[in-house]
Amino acid sequence: MAADQIGPNKGTNVISTEGESVTMSCTYDTSSRTVRLYWFRQYRDGEPQYLMWKEARAWSDTGTPAEPRFQSTTSETSTELIITGVTLSDSALYYCALRVGAQ
């Protein structure tokens, strides 16, 4: 059985103008039907900060986002983080993470 995997899609550098919306995405691969996808961000020299989670496949819950500006969508193989009303303080490194439940 292959290991669970998740990673950013190509073209991971996102450039935007303040006030716009930006979308970042990751693709994942797992045989599990119970999937929870997390988003984090990390500022230079800082700890990763939780942004939100959203479930996929057999699960459908969404965790409370750290800010109302954060939204997420999921599919069978990918997750997106949408940030509305982007500000300069959103300049950071963003991470996606995969958690699977019982097979």
Automatic annotation (TrEMBL):
SMART domains: IGv
Pfam family membership, one: V-set
InterPro entries referenced in this protein's UniProt entry, alphabetically: Ig-like_dom, Ig-like_dom_sf, Ig-like_fold, Ig_V-set, TCR_variable_region
The entry's keywords: Adaptive immunity, Immunity, Immunoglobulin domain, Receptor, Signal, T cell receptor
Residue ranges of domain Ig-like in the record: 8-103
Keyword Acyltransferase: no
Protein name: Ig-like domain-containing protein
Source species of the chain: Cyprinus carpio carpio
Organism lineage: Eukaryota, Metazoa, Chordata, Craniata, Vertebrata
